[in-house]
Amino acid sequence: MLMYTKEYMSDLTEIQNVITNLDRLRNAKVLITGAGGLIGSALVDFLQNLNRQKHLNIYIYAAARDYKKIERRFGTMMNETGFFFLKYDALQTLNAEVHFDYIIHAASNAYPSSYMKQPVETMLANIMGLKTLLDYGNLAGTKRIVYISSSEVYGKKDDGRSYSENDYSFLDILNPRACYPSSKRAAETLCSAYQQEFGVDYVIVRPGHVYGPTMTDFDNRASSQFPRDVLNGKDIVMKSMGTQVRSYCYVLDCVSAIIFVMLNGILGNAYNISNKHSIVTIREMAECFAKAGGRKVIFEEPSRTEQSSYNFMDNSSLSSEKIEALGWKALFDLNKGVRQTLMCCVV
């Protein structure tokens, strides 16, 4: 669970420096779906910290299904000026009388354990949940919708190069595990269709493997399980040799990239979110957390169920050239991100 340490608050302030045109958020109404999640909750933290420091009078609507979860996550922040809770279910119609200026769609079944148990709900939520927001944005005249997609849309290739934004490869669409990347692909096309037919303004971001102290208790991805093991005083247990290459990104770098693209990205474009100084193997990531926490890495055979949930991609490293060309840069390399995660989180 996140602790609002002075280090975390300082980091929220530091990432302001890499985002241009922040004043465009003055008096804006911003809806964040999935506000209780790893990325969504950090976005709320950033915007509220921005309000405190720059007095931009941003109206932050934290949308989620469970009020108590939001209450536990944000505590007294919910009583601050500019913070609003909005009950939201991706499979239900959006009931809101507010005309949002910006919508950041971060709600999704993002954990292997959840979308392997609920592949149908995962697909419907990713596609129909976005459709609801696009319909709303079209009718309300929303300035911009930001769709948080995934690096998994690229599919699997074998040449070892990092993926650029047009680098699509093979995806086994008859494997139930493809419910997540297939629906993310379809959702991106839906954005494009709404722009062409109705003129809806959108941009897409494709994060790599995001980690940080805002991880939730139910997140069973390796990048969340590694720090959880260390914080619990345990050795890190790996269920493979960990040779797969990943683009890891500290959550506050991800936040700054999302806000940067929302304010500066080109209409209809997709942008990778990747820190070029944190492209490592899963094993190297595990060893970094183990070293920082004084633990070691051990290996166990995975169960058949665990194997079925694994990411298809041996290499999911992402090129950051496109977003960096806009002027964005990452501030947290792997060692700093790991250190901040352990420093700002308790279990």
From TrEMBL:
GO terms for cellular component: cytoplasm. Keywords: Decarboxylase, Lyase, NAD. GO terms for biological process: D-xylose metabolic process. Coiled coil: none annotated. It comes from the Bacteria. Gene3D superfamilies: NAD(P)-binding Rossmann-like Domain. Residues 30-273 form the NAD-dependent epimerase/dehydratase domain. One of its GO terms (molecular function) is NAD+ binding. Its cofactor is NAD(+). This is Nucleoside-diphosphate-sugar epimerase. The lineage of its organism: Bacteria, Bacillati, Bacillota, Clostridia, Lachnospirales.
